[in-house]
Design a protein that fits this description.
single chain; alpha/beta; 3-stranded parallel beta sheet; 3 strands; 29% helix
Length: 106
């Protein structure tokens, strides 16, 4: 786990994240899934006031993850979420589907 500051990101990446976070508004007391969390910059940011689960299939990214705030980090792919019963598997799928379709919202 790595403690870093936004200024350590590339300027364009820092700006992009700040713009997205501003558009999201003040999110608090939610359960959030960050699928494809990379090094965890957004998961870490959102974990300050939320219950965040981050999933990332690249083990090298997880080794470099940001973790100033506490969140659950899962090393794996979509199948891991089905296995952990965090998602409802589709009964029948004839076209590509989005993860959000199967999330359990509480």
């Amino acid at each position: 786990m790595v403690s870093k500051k936004m200024t350590e990101l590339q300027p364009w990446e820092c700006l992009m994240k700040r713009i997205v976070w501003k558009q999201l508004g003040d999110i608090r007391d939610k359960k959030i899934l960050d699928f494809g969390s990379g090094i965890g910059v957004t998961a870490n940011y959102l974990a300050e006031h939320n219950d965040v689960t981050a999933i990332e299939p690249d083990a090298d990214s997880i080794k470099e993850r940001w973790a100033d705030n506490q969140y659950t980090q899962i090393d794996g792919m979509l199948a891991v979420l089905f296995h952990r019963k965090m998602l409802h598997p589709p009964k029948k799928v004839s076209a590509p589907y989005r993860v959000e379709t199967f999330l359990k919202f509480k």
